[in-house]
Every structure is written in C-alpha cells, then in structure tokens.
Design a protein that fits this description.
heterodimer; A: mainly alpha; 2 domains; B: alpha+beta; 23% helix; elongated; binds adenosine-5'-diphosphate; binds magnesium ion
C-alpha cells in the first residue's frame, strides 16, 4: 500500500526537496524580520541592564505591573465573553439563513476596511460626553447627565468588541454550517424544545468553532494597545501599552522585554490549551 | 375507539412562494397500518411528511392525530417518531445516548431508561453496540440506530422518509423485511416514503401514489397493480404499455376503443362514455405472441419486434406498432421460442379482461 500511495501523491524525495524550496523564501523572511528581532528583544530581559532575573522580579512583584496584568486579563476576558455572546447569534443566522449570509458577511467585515485610527476616532465622535449618542439621549430626555462611555472601561470594550467580533463569528459560522441540517429538526421530533436541542445538540457540536474563535479574540485582546490607549482611561493601561511606554518613554528595554516574554508565554500556553480542547471536542 | 383513525389529513397543502409543493392531500391512517407514499422525486412526499411531523407549516388543510388537532402543536409536543433519510444521528453522542435522547427529553428515570434503551437496541439487532459512536457503524447499522431512537418512546405513529435510500440493494431488501417484522411485532402505525415501487409493494398494507402534490390513487398493492385508476399509476406502479384511442362503446365492465390498430377491448378503470379519449394499458406478463389469429375475448395487434432480452427465467421483448407505440412483453422461458429476433413481425395478443382502459387527459 505504502509505495502506491507515495506514487499517487508524488511525495518522492525530489518533490519533498522542491516543497522545501517553495517554503524557503517565506521562512527566511519570517526568520529575519520576526524571529530574530524577537529573540534579540527577549534576550535583553535577562541581560539589560545586568545579567540576571531582576527584570522578571520587577515585573512579577511590583503592584504597578501586576495591576497592568490584571487590567489586561479583565479586558481580554470581558471582550471575549461579549464577542461570544454577540457573535453566536449572528453566526447562527449567517449559517442557517442563506439569504442573509452575504449581507451579514459584509456588515461584519466593515471594520476591517477602515484603519484602526479612523475607526477609533469615529468612536470618539460618537461616544464622548457631547458626542452624537449622548446628545441624542439628552435631547430625547432619556437621561439628565451624559453617560460616560469613553476614556473608561466601557469605551475600551465597545471599541475592542467591534473590531474582534469577526474573529469569533467566522469560525463559529463554519462549525454551525458543518452540522447536518437534519439534526435540530430530528431533536425537535424526539421531544427537545428549541432551548434543549440547542444545549444538547448544536452547542456541543460547535465547541471547536467556539473555542477557536474565543481563543483568537482572547489572544488578540492580550496584545491590543491602540484601542485601550485611545478609548480607555488612566485605569485601562494594558501590558502592550506599557511595553511601548517602557521603550518609547522610559527607555527601559529590560523591563519591556520581560513584559513581552510574559505576554508571549501566556499567549502560547493559551493556544496550546485551545488546540487540546478543539481536538478533544472533535468526534473521532 | 379502536376504529378511530390514528391520523387524518384533510386537504392538507403547502406552497413555497408560487410553487405548490403539496396541493391537497386527504388521508386516513388506521391503527397498525403500514402505508407508503410512492411517487417520483418532487411529488411532495417529503413535504407532506414534514407537515405531519410539524417541521413545516401547512398552507391549508387540517391534520388530526388520534382525534387531536395538530395545527397548534409544536413538533416537540407531537410525540411522533421520525426516521430521516440520512439517519440524522447525533455524531457526538454514543449509540446508547442517541437512543436515550428522546427518553431524557421525557424525563424518564435512569433505570427505566437503561432498560428501554437496551431492549430497543436488542430489538433492532444491535444489543452490543451501545458504547460506539455513530461514525463507527456501517450505514445499515446507523439506520437501525435511527429506527431504535424513533421506536424507544413508543410513538403512536412512525414516519420514515426514504430510510433505505442510501443503502445497497441487498442490505435494502434485508432491512425491508426487518422493518416489516418490527411493524408486525410492535403493531405500530407507519407512514413510509419511498420512490421505489418494489419496496412499496413488498412492505405496504396500502400505497398512496403521489403525483404533482396530490395523491393520485390509494389502495392495496394488488389493487393498484391490477386496477390502476390513471395512466400515471399504470406506468409508475409496475410496468405498462399504452395504446391510445377513443371510446366507441361502454358497458359496466367492458369498454371498446377505436385505435390506430383496430378495435380493442378492456376493463374500464372509471366510468367512460362513447367519444371519450382513452388509453389502453396492458402489463408485460399479460402479452403473448400468437401464431394463429386468436379470436373471441382476445385483443390482437400486429407489430414488429425491436428488441429481445434474455433474462434467465424469462424473455423480455419490445415490439413497435406501425404508429410507433411500443408494447413490452415478458414470456416465461418455457413459452418463448428460441428464434425470437428483432425484425420479425408478430401478432401480439392479450385478454380483454386482463387490460385496463383509462381516461386519457
Ligand atoms: N424549502 C423549499 N423551498 C422551495 N421549494 C421546496 C422546498 N421544499 C420542497 N420544495 C419543492 O416542493 C416540491 C416537493 O418537494 P418534496 O416534498 O421534497 O418532494 P419529494 O419528497 O416527493 O421528492 C418540489 O418541487 C420541491 O422543489
Ligand atoms: Mg423526498
């Protein structure tokens, strides 16, 4: 069997060599502009200003930095939860109403077609105390005081959820689409109310898509800094923003490098954990 | 009470925009009956079944299950068993968990549930497969699980939509017999959709022939085969050859029609009057080849053989009439001369009492 299969796919030694040749340019590019600089930066976490683990001691002990990490995790968790809660119904409609799929795809992707800055400034115009939304609310008499929706946690979450929503919607859309369309009707015929059919059939079958989407959003949230910086307040400083400030304002490369490593380790362990979950959730 | 129909459909219909998927279907299903919906693809069988299950909302008409109006009842409260064409097993649940699902929805206790799941799996011949996942079973086994899952809560009515469509012929025949056995043993009322007329003839107490969103004729298999009420049924249930003509004389059980091949007689399917357009339908096994012109009760037409096929037990032949109409015949091998060959001209003959005269629209 083995030789036949090998012949059919053409995966002989020559083709393996040519496959390597084909991925070489991209590999070199990533190595030179990403892996090497990152390695160099990370090496400074144990060498700048002096050899040793002082930078990590600083980062993992001092309340300022622990506060940053708490902010980052809180914002990321909240963003992920909101994205899942808002995204699941959208993905469901996209997957089950073919007529709405194109329209919704378009709407969901709109934020990707504008730059982060444009998008964020648009939110400022809408959300600030004398912005469009507050003026409408005040004008209609629904509120007496403007609602503070910007330069605080609310603003950060609004901005981040909007941008990250597609990352949870598309994997979910894929995994809902992959479900045999007869399963939910079958569950109904067997006596399952819509809610029970969802909990017992659709939800378990979409765990892989849900995990993939939630992990993407969480990981991207961990490293986000433009939106928190522009829409957040003084209490919404996150790790990524701090790394940038350490280098740009304080010139403390060692601490910046240690923070980066913490972020990287957190991200990688999350990705590994999520892969495990997705693999377990898939029926063999 | 025993004579009350399990299911009653009155003028049930369904439109999708401008397409009429089901026009108007009337049906009464008696307790313990096995009724098949037989018809070509797109004739509205599935849509009718889905309306009964509650998965489609009828555009018109009325449905009663054991005397209760089904209209306002959602599918999850109808307590009807449904077996889908592609099984629709839950891929993330084991076989036993699939079969237990409807019992969990009914909040049946643990021990009772385990007992019934075990019994039902044994009933469909899979007593030792409870721990497997559906993907680890063959197509035939998956269909048995689907059947077990629909039977485990003892619904008053079981709906099956082409349940054997995806299986090969041998397995299909085996499962046909098994479904028939379950039907007899459990005394359950079954509505069975198929486009395979042989399957319908083998399994059913009654067959409803669907055409264009309507039931064209409903009756026992033998009734349909021997007394088709329309040209469509004569052609769809079993095989028939047709000769068109016009009624010249009509009595209660004998009609004569004038055709391009002379005067032919037959048994009328419905009341016909002289002058009506009509068509004669004859089954292949009724057509013989005669050397001498037979008289009396027999119809005779002159034809040219265009094809002769050896089938082992019999020989099948097709013969063309002068106007191009084709008559198909089936001769037992003992009666078929060895020298039958395309190109020969022959006299085809059959009894007037063994063919049907149908109205031709
Ligand atoms: N969801 C639907 N939307 C539009 N037309 C449909 C839909 N379902 C079925 N139809 C149409 O209704 C007719 C009957 O379909 P169906 O009941 O599936 O037939 P069958 O099961 O006899 O093959 C077909 O012409 C089909 O195209
Ligand atoms: Mg169908």
């Amino acid at each position: 069997m083995e030789p036949v299969a090998a012949d059919l796919t053409g995966a002989g030694p020559t083709s393996r060599a040519s496959h390597l040749l084909l991925v070489l340019p991209a590999t070199l590019f990533v190595l030179v502009v990403f892996a090497l600089p990152v390695a160099w930066l990370l090496s400074r976490s144990v060498s700048d200003p002096a050899w040793g683990l002082d930078n990590f001691r600083t980062v993992l002990r001092e309340p300022v930095y622990l506060g940053l990490m708490r902010n980052t995790v809180q914002i990321s968790v909240a963003t992920t939860v909101l994205c899942v809660l808002l995204g699941y119904p959208v993905a469901h409609v996209m997957a089950t109403c073919p007529r709405l799929t194109r329209l919704l795809t378009f709407v969901v992707l709109v934020p990707f077609w504008s730059s982060v800055l444009v998008r964020t400034f648009a939110w400022m115009v809408l959300l600030q105390n004398n912005g469009l939304i507050n003026r409408a609310l005040l004008g209609s008499g629904l509120v007496r005081q403007p609602i503070e929706m910007i330069f605080n946690r609310t603003g950060v979450l609004i901005g981040m959820v909007q941008v990250l929503l597609p990352f949870v919607i598309f994997p979910l859309y894929g995994s809902i689409r992959a479900i045999d369309p007869a399963l939910m009707p079958a569950a109904a015929c067997m006596g399952a109310t819509p809610a029970r059919a969802f909990l017992r059939v659709q939800l378990p079958l979409t765990i892989p898509g849900l995990t993939t989407g939630a992990t993407l959003v969480f990981v991207l949230s961990l490293g986000y800094f433009v939106t928190p910086a522009l829409l957040g307040g003084r209490r919404d400083v996150v790790i990524a923003r701090m790394i940038q400030m350490e280098i740009g304002q304080f010139g403390d490369w060692g601490v910046a490098a240690a923070l980066s490593l913490v972020l990287l380790v957190a991200t990688l362990s999350l990705l590994g954990f999520s892969r495990l979950l997705v693999r377990r959730g898939r029926p063999t | 009470m025993t004579d009350a129909p399990v299911l009653t459909l009155r003028g049930i219909g369904k439109d999708y925009g401008r397409t009429v998927a089901v026009d108007a279907v009337d049906l009464e299903l008696r307790r313990g009956e096995f009724v098949s919906f037989l018809g070509p693809s797109g004739s509205g069988k599935t849509t009718t079944l889905m309306m009964i299950a509650g998965l489609q909302t009828p555009s018109r008409g009325e449905m009663l299950l054991q005397g209760r109006d089904l209209g306002p009842v959602p599918p999850y409260r109808r307590n009807i068993g449904v077996v889908f064409q592609n099984y629709a097993l839950f891929p993330h649940l084991s076989v036993a968990a699939n079969v237990a699902f409807p019992l969990q929805m009914r909040r049946v206790g643990r021990t009772e549930m385990a007992r019934r799941v075990g019994e039902t799996l044994a009933l469909v011949g899979l007593p030792d497969h409870g721990a497997r996942l559906p993907a680890q079973l063959s197509g035939g086994q998956q269909q048995r699980v689907a059947l077990a899952r629909a039977l485990v809560y003892q619904p008053p009515l079981l709906l099956m939509d082409e349940p054997l469509g995806a299986l090969d012929k041998k397995l299909r025949e085996q499962l046909q017999l098994e479904i028939s056995r379950l039907h007899r043993e459990l005394g359950i009322t079954v509505l069975y959709v198929t486009h395979d007329q042989e399957e319908a003839l083998v399994m059913s107490d009654r067959i409803a022939v669907f055409n264009d969103g309507r039931i064209e004729q409903i009756g026992r298999p033998q009734e349909l085969y021997e007394h088709p009420a329309s040209r469509f049924v004569a052609g769809f249930v079993g095989e028939s050859s047709f000769i068109v003509g016009r009624v010249t004389s009509a009595a209660a059980n004998r009609v004569a029609i004038e055709t391009a091949h002379g005067m032919l007689c037959g048994h009328p399917a419905t009341s016909l009057a002289p002058g009506d357009a009509a068509v004669l339908a004859v089954r292949p096994e009724r057509v013989g080849i005669s050397e001498e012109a037979a008289g009396g009760d027999r119809n005779v037409v002159h034809a040219r053989l265009v094809e002769v096929i050896y089938l082992g037990q019999s020989r099948k032949f097709m013969a063309a009439l002068p106007n191009g109409e084709i008559i198909t015949g089936l001769l037992p091998i003992a009666l078929a001369a060895d020298d039958l060959a395309p190109g020969q001209t022959v006299d085809l003959t059959w009894r007037a009492s063994e063919c049907t005269i149908l109205p031709d629209h």
